[in-house]
Amino acid sequence: MENSELFHARSRAAAAVFFLLFSVIALRALQIGVVSRGRFLRAGEKLSLKNVSIPARRGSILDGNNVPLAWSERHFELWSALPAGEHFLPRQQEKLREIFPDSVFSSVTGSSSVLRLSLTAKEIAALEPLILRGFPVRIRSKTRRLTVNSAEIGKQIGRVRNGVGVSGWEKKYDHLLRGRNGKGQVMLDRRRNWIRSTWKLTASPVHGRNVVVPVTVRQTGKGAGK
């Protein structure tokens, strides 16, 4: 009889402990899933959500015959994403040589090195799956401002710095040429790569307008970078 009572007492104690633990777990799940859900979601988004600026295209400067005097061209560059002081491993160098057989990457170190200028569409397509798997390189979009090859006209055109006209026609008509950047949001994976299916455009870019200046010139050659 005493053994039976002891067994029942222990069973009731075990049941009480189990019920207590279950209640604590249930309350914690309720707190995370309902009460604090918004706070946890915001914290998670802060870690994985990236706000992206979409550059607006700067308008062109044209002469009276609609001949381009200044215009913008976009190209893509390949940059290293190596940690400071580290080099590409032999197998990584081999992968890069398969895409760029005319280049050597053994001396590259750190993340401040540009590896290739003006990537082709074929090179970008070959690099994309590597980057998604964590390969330590990044593709960056760059825009160059080009002008007609004329020293005299070049002085009138002026210069652009950080997307803003600072002299000449570039400054005078900056409010028309510049446009307004767009905005977007995208989630990042654990390697900090974009998850394409999560991309959301929040504000479309407003591209700059072309401006016709009151001169007529003859184009003398290819554009020069500014």
What does this structure look like?
The structure is a single chain. This protein is an alpha+beta fold. The chain has one domain (49-225): Penicillin-binding protein 2a (Domain 2), CATH 3.90.1310.10. The protein contains seven helices and eleven strands. Strands 2, 3, 4, 5, 10 and 11 form a six-stranded mixed β-sheet that branches. Strands 1-8-9 form a three-stranded antiparallel β-sheet. A two-stranded antiparallel ribbon has the order 6-7. A hairpin with a 5-residue loop joins strand 2 (61-62) and strand 3. It starts with a helix and ends with a strand.
**E-strand count:** 11
Question: Unreliable stretches, pLDDT < 50, 5 or more residues?
Answer: none
Counting helices, strands and paired strands, the structural category is alpha+beta
Total count of helical runs of at least 4 residues? 7
- N/C terminus separation: 99 Å
Shape: elongated
Question: What is the CATH C level class, in words?
Answer: Alpha Beta
Which second-level CATH architecture applies? Alpha-Beta Complex
Strand content: 15-25%
Number of domains: 1
Task: Summarize the amount of helix as a percent range.
Answer: 25-40%
- State the CATH topology: Penicillin-binding protein 2a (Domain 2)
CA radius of gyration? 30 Å
Q: N-to-C SSE series?
A: HHEEEHEHEHEEHHEEEE
Average per-residue pLDDT, rounded, comes to 83
Biggest sheet character: 6 strands, mixed
The CATH homologous superfamily is called: Penicillin-binding protein 2a (Domain 2)
